[in-house]
Design brief:
heterodimer, A: ABC transporter involved in vitamin B12 uptake, BtuC, B: mainly alpha, ABC transporter involved in vitamin B12 uptake, BtuC, two-stranded antiparallel ribbon, globular
Chain lengths: 289, 340
Amino acid sequence: MNLTQQVINGLVLGHAYALVAIGWTLLLGVARLVNFGHGQMYMLGAFVTWWAVAKAGVPYLLAVPFAMLVGAAFGLVMQRVMLKATFEQNLVSIMIMTLGFGYVLHGGAALIFGSTGQILETSLSRHEFNFGDLWFTGQDLAIVVAAIVVFICLKWVLDGTRIGRLVRMVAEDPKLAQLAGVNVRRVYYGVFAFEGAAVAFAAGMVAPRTPILTSMGFEEVIMTFVVVVFGGIGSVKGSYFAGVALGLFTALFGALVSPAYTTAAAFLVLIALLVLRPGGLSAGVAGAH
Amino acid sequence: MPHPKLRHIALPLVGVAVFAAPAVFGGSGAVYSAAVLIAIFAVMAYGLDVIVSDLGEVSLAHTVFFAAGSYTTALLSTRAGFDGWGTLAGTVLVALGLALLIGLVTLRLREFVFSLVTYAVGVVAVTLASNWQFLGGSDGLRGIPQLDLSIAGLALTARNDQELWPYAFALLVITVYLVDRFRHSRLGAAAIMTHLNPRLATVGGIDPARVRLQVFLFSAPISAAAGWLYAYQRAYVSADVLEAYFLILMLTAVVLVGRRQLLGPLFATALVLTQEKFFSLGGYVDKIILGSVLVLILGFFPQGLMGLVRPLQRLLRGGAPRHPIPAGTPAPSPPVGEPK
């Protein structure tokens, strides 16, 4: 095994995890909402991108924004249905509803796109860089760059702009924010649209690395959980580093131990984190909310 | 809630009607098959019902208990030659062990973190079941013998769905009885109190963590027992017992009629299964229907179908407003109030 190659794989994988998790980070940090349909939204993003490229002949660079639009629209529909529960902070209902949405997406995608696996090929994924024994594709490079750019932009928007201030006000105290004249409903809609668009963007970027199936998405959710929990719930910077760390761990575990059980290993990491730092976790929730 | 005396008369009548239902609806193999599955899945859902409705948490690991029941039954019957009682005992023990493990790990976790971990347990269970050769890997375990519950010369076996129906019905009746007893027990009251106001519960001398663990231990064997019978019904077990379908079905069964309705999960499961077995629009469309029902009920009718019936009941009673124990899950904090 070439260790350097595994580290490269891990870095790419890590940026992919961070990118996939970014919508959840904001969702949880700002609105204290969760989305168990996240994995299926990732699947939808991958299939819409694939459909646009392979069936409709749209260039890849346009297919990704198209998938993001579809993702954002779906996010808005979800938020519309869940609006009452969101204002009541009824997490039990929200969790179950997002699971239901994921299930609808699964059935719908299988109906529209068929249940056979597909390959999403892009001009970037065909381009390989070789340095001696080491190699990576243009798509890998694009994932790393995209993740870094998206995280920097999100951090900047949250910390330095008016929109970011409104969003943070709602995160701090929705009731007071409302009294202060913030349109809380619009912020919730915006956050869910962002979640839909962000996970579709991530899918458009990351899905070319693997075959895509309508039954996928579960593994992505677990990895997202680990990233969000490990990074400190709601922390943008934390999510980035947690994603990269998880990527390195998974790549090395897959190479050294067993590729079939990487999800199980990531789950054990999650459990260990929760048991070892439950205090840190709840502080994260309180801080984010 | 109906008058207690009325309840004592009504419940046995409902029982007789349910038992006779497959025969009334033609008694064909397909009808009995559907009836057995309705009973099994309703039992599975009752396990989750006490967690969601009484404890107010969403456990997404109940498919794992269900699957654990099926796998334990498959392993013990094919490799160790256990009969139905032996596999049932094994199922209950394994479910208790798993529930204890998951319960202890998640004891201090609440709300979405609890759900997140239990969801992860489910996903990891899928990878384990489809990769571990001990559990049959992706092929699963085949050749489960017919159900044999014979005791002391009394032959109690089931070769097909029609013969399996009395056992499925019995399991259902026992489950409904246990859930009813639970709701009238001290543990049930403590669970509701922990759910509605954990601080008050603590002041009242209740240890919420302990209550949560006890309810978890009570509920897991119920879902697992459903898996036990399901293994006999199908005669083989594979990782598809962990599919999202079972989770979505369970959750729909819990919320469709309204929470804390004793016969709610049974009625809801019957509705869903009847649609899927006799009015199916194809597997994918059925998925869309099931998922949409779940979403729309919670989004727009959080009280479930009972929420639609209650105003009618009130009208029939002469308009006297009544305030029963809230059937839906109240918000843990006061609502923010939707801006106009």
